[in-house]
């Protein structure tokens, strides 16, 4: 992380200097603020709304939701036979043959007429997301499978012309904004290059008539059969379609946040630069702040916001970042045997992320018919109920001098493991707003009458002796007694818990 922080700091410093030199007159002169260079893109400021929002929700929903087997990689895995060595995914191939027949007779495209979405209610979804406490929400506009969830003129394989025959992106953008939320679009479609076995003449992927869905025919697909091997970058025509799709969504839906999944670096560097400049310049015309996120090494640090998939920072960092993770431990889409995280764990993740200067984007898993599974709904409602009480400790806060204390520590990097991070009552995270410090205890202490916050001892420069004016517990009306000494801030617990999951003490500093 040190290299990332240093690189970003250098770019941001250069950006501040450049912004001061040019100022705002470019708008009056009709000039583009952002030029197609990393240096110019580093001038793009962090969006204030994003820094305040903290929590968002999006969804994986598409053709892969019809078979609902294993995970959202079904489109890839269904074509991988068990006999091919060193490959996963053959379970999906076996399942497909058992339920739908040989892949030579029933290809991925044949699921499209089965994607009816007959119970899809975008306003109901958006209202649920808002009540869950999300300030921004969105959808995977196109997954690796090549099927677009918007009314595309570039790709005929889209949800408005096939399947549900509804412009899902437009309906969701309208619904989210009706609920006062920012709109997010997620793009994974660069991974279409190498996703399907288009060189295999025995399956439909090699048919040029379906190239819009499966990608150019007869190109090598080592991502499917040998993911670890390097392979040539996609040709110019593939990259042009990739870019045009993103620009189409930008022009038609004006997303507040664009999220790029990994492997973006297979796209030519200048094309990536041009696209960022286009998005940032369009946002200037719209008169609104936007955010673009990327996975490590896909873009230059400082030009956009770093995203960590299924993981988070191990410590407090000076720059804004984001975690995206799924409500299901093993899948990003609805499956027949889900393994959902608990609402308690999701709240703990949110608190830990916010304490380290991050935002939390949670993925949920609607069924193909448009119904959000009831266990998912229950968890979202529980998160919303927690935020109704404790939102002051989350929204519009900023990191404190340290992110927290306690025995449970996160290892940085992507793809955190299920076995880690069962937080305890000794794990405490801090957020702040002005002179108010929030100490969020990640579990209710058992067999003890008090909470001890060791970081707030009188010997530490973090809080000078006598530096605490008052405190209370969010959600509780009971007046608390406390003492402040060399061991820490010791708070006597109220007789009743003010809710579930984590507990936020509001501390007024002198």
Strand content: 15-25%
Q: Kindly report the spatial arrangement of strands forming the biggest sheet.
A: 1-2-3-4-5-6-7-8
What percent of the residues sit in helical stretches (DSSP H or I)?
A: 25-40%
State the CATH class of the domain at 48-66 and 115-193 and 234-393.
Alpha Beta
Mean pLDDT, all residues: 90
Order of H and E elements: HHHHEHHHEHEHHHEHEEEHEHEEEEEEEE
Structural class: alpha/beta
| Morphology | globular
Rg result: 24 Å
Low-confidence stretches: 1-23
Biggest pleated sheet: 8 strands, parallel, barrel
Supply the CATH superfamily name of the domain at 48-66 and 115-193 and 234-393. Answer: Glycosidases
Number of helices: 14
CATH topology of the domain at 48-66 and 115-193 and 234-393: TIM Barrel
Count of strand segments: 16
- Cα separation of the termini: 34 Å
Based on the structure given, which CATH architecture of the domain at 48-66 and 115-193 and 234-393 is correct? Alpha-Beta Barrel
């Amino acid at each position: 992380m040190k290299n990332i922080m240093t690189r970003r700091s250098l770019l941001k410093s250069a950006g501040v200097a450049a912004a001061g030199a040019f100022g705002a007159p470019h708008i009056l002169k009709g000039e583009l603020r952002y030029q197609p260079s990393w240096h110019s893109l580093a001038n793009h400021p962090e969006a204030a709304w994003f820094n305040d929002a903290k929590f968002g929700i999006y969804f994986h929903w598409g053709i892969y939701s019809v078979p609902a087997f294993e995970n959202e990689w079904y489109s890839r895995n269904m074509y991988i036979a068990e006999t091919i060595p060193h490959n996963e995914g053959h379970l999906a191939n076996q399942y497909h043959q058992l339920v739908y027949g040989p892949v030579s007779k029933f290809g991925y495209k044949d699921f499209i007429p089965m994607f009816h979405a007959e119970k899809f209610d975008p306003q109901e979804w958006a209202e649920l997301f808002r009540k869950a406490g999300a300030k921004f929400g969105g959808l995977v506009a196109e997954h690796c499978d090549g099927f677009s969830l918007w009314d595309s003129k570039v790709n005929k394989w889209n949800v408005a012309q096939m399947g549900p025959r509804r412009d899902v992106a437009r309906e969701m953008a309208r619904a989210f904004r009706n609920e006062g939320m920012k709109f997010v679009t997620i793009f994974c479609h660069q991974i279409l290059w190498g996703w399907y076995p288009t060189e295999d003449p025995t399956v439909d992927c090699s048919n040029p008539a379906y190239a819009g869905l499966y990608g150019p025919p007869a190109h090598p697909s080592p991502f499917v059969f040998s993911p670890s091997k390097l392979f040539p970058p996609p040709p110019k025509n593939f990259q042009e379609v990739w870019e045009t799709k993103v620009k189409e969504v930008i022009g038609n839906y004006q997303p507040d946040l664009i999220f790029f999944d990994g492997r973006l670096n297979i796209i030519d560097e200048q094309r990536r630069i041009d696209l960022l400049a286009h998005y940032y310049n369009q946002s200037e015309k719209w008169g609104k702040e936007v955010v673009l996120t990327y996975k490590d090494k896909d873009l230059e640090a400082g030009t956009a916001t770093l995203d960590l998939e299924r993981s988070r920072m191990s410590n407090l960092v000076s720059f804004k970042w984001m975690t995206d993770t799924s409500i299901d431990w093993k899948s990003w889409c609805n499956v027949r045997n889900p393994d959902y995280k608990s609402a308690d764990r999701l709240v703990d993740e949110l608190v830990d992320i916010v304490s380290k200067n991050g935002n939390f984007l949670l993925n949920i898993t609607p069924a193909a018919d448009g119904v959000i599974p009831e266990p998912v709904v229950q968890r979202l409602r529980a998160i919303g109920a927690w935020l109704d009480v404790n939102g002051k400790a989350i929204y519009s806060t900023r990191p404190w001098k340290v992110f927290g204390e306690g025995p449970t520590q996160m290892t940085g990097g992507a793809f955190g493991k299920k076995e880690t991070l069962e937080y305890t009552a000794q794990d405490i995270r801090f957020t702040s707003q002005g002179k108010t410090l929030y100490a969020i205890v990640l579990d209710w202490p058992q067999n003890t009458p008090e909470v001890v916050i060791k970081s707030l001892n009188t010997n530490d420069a973090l809080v000078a002796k006598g530096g605490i004016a008052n405190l209370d517990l969010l959600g509780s009306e009971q007046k608390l007694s406390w003492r402040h000494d060399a061991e820490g801030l010791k708070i006597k617990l109220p007789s009743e818990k003010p809710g579930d999951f984590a507990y936020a003490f509001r501390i007024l500093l002198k």
